[in-house]
Specification:
Two copies of one chain form a homodimer. The first copy, chain A, is built from one helix and ten strands, in the order ββαββββββββ. Chain A is mainly beta and 117 residues long. At the A-B interface, strand 1, helix 1, strand 3, strand 4 and strand 5 of A face strand 1, helix 1, strand 3, strand 4 and strand 5 of B.
Chain lengths: 117, 117
Amino acid sequence: MKNYSKTNVTGTERVELHDILGLSGAEISVNYMPAGAGVPFVHAHKQNEEIYIILEGKGFMDVDGEKVELNANDFLRVAPEAKRQLSAAADSSVKYLCIQVKAGSLEEFTANDAVLS
Amino acid sequence: MKNYSKTNVTGTERVELHDILGLSGAEISVNYMPAGAGVPFVHAHKQNEEIYIILEGKGFMDVDGEKVELNANDFLRVAPEAKRQLSAAADSSVKYLCIQVKAGSLEEFTANDAVLS
C-alpha cells in the first residue's frame, strides 16, 4: 500500500476528507457558504479541538456569545467545550477549512518527531 | 481564559501556529517556497501523519522515491514512515499548509463528537 493519498477539491460542495484520504489523526472539511448564510445550529465538541482556516471571503464565528470576525488568512482555534456557530458575512461568501483533532493528542512535532534520512 | 484564539498570516515567512494559537492536537505551519526551491533534506516522522494543503502555485513531493505533482487545491496525506521531500516547481512558487497530527489519534468526529445546544 502506498504511503500517501491525494485529492483535489474545487467547487462549493462540502467535502469531508477523512475517508477520501484515509486520515487517522484528523478530519478536515472544505466548506463554502454564500453571503448571508450560516450554520443553522450551535454546537460544541466532546473531545475535539477545531481549527478554522479562512481561505476566501468574510464571515464571523459566535463563540460563547462573542462575535469573532473572520477574514481571509485567519486561523481560529476553538476549544472543545466552546459553543460555536459560523456564518458568512451579509455581503460576502466565505470559503474555509475546518480541521478536527483530538484535544491534547499531539505528543511531539517538527524536529522532535522527525527522522532524517 | 477564552475558549478561542485567532491569528492572521500573510507574507512569505514560515509561520508555525502551535504556540501562537495554543494548539494541543496539531501543529500547523504556513509555508512559501519560491520557484525552483526545495526542502534541503528528506525526512519521515516517528508518530505524526502529515497533511499538505496546496493554497497557491505548483510543486511536487517526492514520496518514497515517487514524484507526486502538487497543484492548488490539492490535499495530500503522507503516512509517518514515508520518506518525503517537497519542492516548488521550476517555474512556479508554491504556498502550502502542513498539518501534523498523531497518527491514529482521532477517536470520533463530526456528528459523533458533537454536542448540540
